[in-house]
Design goal:
The complex is a heterodimer of chains A (319) and B (331). In chain A, strand 4 and strand 5 form a beta hairpin. In chain A, the strands form two sheets. An eight-stranded mixed beta sheet of chain A has the order 6-7-8-3-9-10-12-11, sandwiched between helices. Chain A has a four-stranded antiparallel beta sheet with strand order 2-1-4-5, with helices on one face. Chain A has 319 residues and is α/β, with parallel strands linked by helices. The longest helix of chain A is centred in the middle third of the chain and has 16 residues. Chain B folds into two domains: 59 residues, no CATH class; 237 residues, MetI-like fold. In chain B, 79% of the residues lie in helices and 0% in strands. Chain B has 13 helices and no strands. In chain B, helix 5 crosses helix 8 and helix 10 runs antiparallel to helix 12. The radius of gyration of chain B is 24 Å and the shape is globular. Classes of the chains: A alpha/beta (319), B mainly alpha (331). The interface between A and B is medium-sized, with 30 and 23 residues. The complex binds adenosine-5'-diphosphate, iron/sulfur cluster and magnesium ion (MG). Chain B: Its main location: membrane. Chain B: One of its GO terms (cellular component) is plasma membrane. Chain B: It comes from Marinactinospora thermotolerans DSM 45154. Chain B: Belongs to the binding-protein-dependent transport system permease family.
């Protein structure tokens, strides 16, 4: 791990809705080192997917309000669909949550891949050998290229998508809840495969979104915790799990039965209260309503500061 | 795969069997003496001809035979291609009358169905591109599909035929002409064909355009489209996939709509006095010509069944999902 590969600062993204703007990301800032696998955790609705989408392709309802994203020192034009296109797939890629339905059902997989590659200016023949090698690595024969998606099992489709998404060796891979639909042992295998991809240089860095902290803990170098559209803590997986600084992270960790033990249901639940609405988010610390440590100063927004070497937290009591 | 088609064929055969049976029953179980009432309505002045007809139909109905025998005889002659003799055009065989009308009906229906399906789908996909287009196409499409075939036909006949005087509004070709391969005849044929064709085309076109527009919007929001877009695939590729996948439900829609379209064509023929099966049915009703009516219905049922079967086959050829599942099922 050396050098900074991803630098996000003050990233603010809203969803336009009929009832007003949903402040899904507000002043998000963090960095990722080259080769880093960052686990991104947080309750459902905390903005994980929004962050992932902002880095590759905003949907039509999203609005880039302010903030910058730099990848390998180069600014990504995230708010500009056309200007962003050259970066997609080549530099930033995605393994979606919906791998099972990500492939066009009426095209043979090989043909669909060739058509995608051609449309991105890559000669399919030039990556053919690599494609076959990587399929083999995930335990698939080249035969799958002649199949239709319906002929593959869910796990096979997932592996095809993993190989396809990383075929051009992106600098940043976003894996959004890729394991949520799988059973526990498959979850682990998929996560392990992605680590192997990183080790082999198929991807330089990865944001691994999950709401399963213990799975994240097993494969991620660092963990970032989000709450109501903001990062509240980021640090090495070890530091975040064993020495959490933010009260929200602490509650998350302590609500787990036992970190590191294999068990299916270890979701981010069990904290009383619910996160604030994002149509009109409250001023000050967004966790204040549910925070047992809240005090007067918390009506001002706590900055996301380095509380220890390589360990950031946004809480007045964390320093 | 063969099992699938075998099952389909069986269902079609059963449908045909039921249709034929109902067809056979209608004149026989109507109140009154079918032969007498037919002949009473038939405008035959010549007493000798009338007597010949009475003799013919009485023996044909075979009223002295038991019912099951009559029924079997009916099937027997049907399989020999013998549909009886027309009352209205006595003594022309019904099959001959019908075969004379079928080309006109097919000549209207086949181009109207195929062209409206193709053009409607292309146009619907095109309309889904822009808001402005969408806002104009959608209401026009709904208006067209909601218009009854008769109305549109009458409207077209009145505006383009009677008021503007561009197109003739009755018959298949000019009264003075005899069928031949001459320029005069062919151009007259085309002119007479155009308005009934157009009214059929327009009503169906609106429906296909709306269907495609809705389907393609759905496909463009499907997961495989989002994935391609996230990987920077150009709009062109995503649209191509979406269009192809949206065509499949439209094909199913075609199979479902076939009956309605055929019924529409029959009405349209009546509006334009176009000498196809629709017109024949009208004449048969007016003249109490049960044999002709039976024959025409049989042909229509047969035509719709065949067309449905063709669509079934095409669907299997173009949708790999169905094909794969069937192969899996057969193995
Ligand atoms: N299309 C949308 N329109 C309006 N609000 C949305 C939309 N998508 C997500 N949101 C809102 O944005 C916030 C963040 O959502 P998301 O990024 O999907 O969270 P997560 O992935 O962490 O579960 C939530 O409050 C959610 O309700
Ligand atoms: S800033 Fe205050 S309210 Fe927010 S987490 Fe820290 S102590 Fe709790
Ligand atoms: Mg999400």
């Amino acid at each position: 791990m050396s050098g900074v590969s991803l630098e996000v600062s003050d990233l603010t993204v809203h969803y336009r809705t009929l009832r007003g703007d949903v402040h899904a990301l507000e002043g998000v800032g963090f960095t990722m080192a080259d080769g880093e696998i960052m686990g991104l955790v947080g309750e459902s609705g905390s903005g994980k997917s929004t962050l992932g989408k902002s880095l590759i392709r905003m949907d039509s309802r999203m609005r880039h309000v302010r903030g910058t994203v730099r990848l390998d020192g180069e600014e990504l034009p995230i708010g500009d669909q056309a200007a962003m296109t050259p970066f997609r797939y080549h530099r930033v890629s995605l393994i979606p949550q919906y791998s099972m339905s990500a492939l066009n059902p009426t095209r043979r997989i090989g043909r669909m891949i060739d058509e995608l590659l051609e449309s991105r200016g890559v000669r399919p023949a030039s990556v053919r050998a690599e494609l076959l090698r990587r399929l083999d690595l995930v335990g698939l024969s080249g035969q799958v290229l002649r199949r239709y998606p319906i002929e593959l099992s869910g796990g096979m489709k997932q592996r095809v998508v993993m190989v396809l998404s990383t075929l051009l060796d992106p600098s940043l891979l976003i894996a959004d809840e890729v394991t949520s639909a799988l059973d526990v042992s498959t979850q682990r295998a998929v996560a392990q495969t992605l680590v192997e991809f990183r080790d082999r240089g198929y991807l330089a860095g990865m944001i691994f979104v999950s709401h399963d902290i213990s799975l994240v803990n097993q494969i991620a170098d660092t963990i970032m915790v989000m709450y109501a559209g903001k990062p509240v803590e980021k640090g090495t997986a070890e530091a975040v799990v064993n020495g959490p600084r933010h009260p929200y992270t602490r509650m998350l960790i302590s609500s787990l039965p036992e970190v590191g033990v294999t068990h299916a249901e270890r979701r981010l639940e069990g904290i009383p209260g619910s996160p604030p609405g994002l149509l009109d988010p409250p001023r000050g610390c967004r966790f204040r309503e549910r925070c047992p440590l809240a005090f007067d100063k918390c009506d001002q927004e706590p900055p996301f500061v380095e509380v220890d070497r390589g360990h950031w937290a946004a809480c007045w009591k964390a320093g | 795969m063969w099992r699938y088609f075998g099952r389909k064929l069986f269902v079609y055969a059963l449908t045909f069997f039921v249709a034929v049976t109902i067809n056979w029953m209608i004149p026989r179980f109507m109140p009154g003496d079918p032969v007498r009432s037919m002949l009473a309505r038939a405008s035959v002045g010549n007493a000798e001809a009338l007597e010949a007809m009475r003799a013919y139909y009485s023996s044909l109905f075979g009223l002295d035979l038991p019912v099951w025998q009559q029924y079997l005889n009916f099937w027997g002659s049907l399989l020999r291609g013998d549909l009886g003799t027309s009352v209205w055009l006595f003594p022309t065989p019904v099959s001959e009358v019908i075969l004379g009308a079928v080309p006109y009906t097919l000549g209207l229906l086949v181009p109207a169905i195929l062209l409206s399906w193709i053009a409607g789908n292309k146009f619907g996909a095109f309309a889904a591109r822009g808001r402005w287009l969408d806002n104009t196409v959608l209401p026009v499409g709904y208006l067209l599909t909601a218009t009854p075939y008769m109305w549109l036909g009458i409207l077209l006949a009145w505006s383009l035929g009677i008021v503007a005087g561009i197109f003739p509004t009755a018959g298949a070709y000019g009264f003075a002409l005899q069928p031949s391969l001459s320029w005069a005849f062919v151009s007259s044929l085309v002119l007479h064909w155009f308005l009934p064709f157009l009214s059929l085309f327009l009503v169906a076109f609106g429906g296909w355009a709306i269907g495609m527009r809705n389907m393609i919007i759905y496909e463009l929001e499907a997961d495989y489209s989002s994935y391609l877009e996230a990987l920077g695939a150009p709009r062109r590729l995503v649209r191509r996939y979406a269009f192809r996948n949206a065509l499949l439900p439209q094909l199913t829609g075609l199979a479902l709509q076939l009956g309605t379209i055929v019924a529409g064509a029959l009405l349209t023929e009546i509006v334009f006095s176009y000498p196809g099966l629709g017109n024949l049915i009208l004449e048969a009703l007016n003249n109490r010509d049960f044999f002709l009516l039976q024959g025409a219905f049989l042909f229509i049922v047969l035509g719709v069944l065949i067309a449905n079967f063709v669509i079934d086959v095409v669907y299997v050829l173009v949708d790999p999902r169905v094909r794969v599942q069937m192969q899996g099922g057969a193995a």
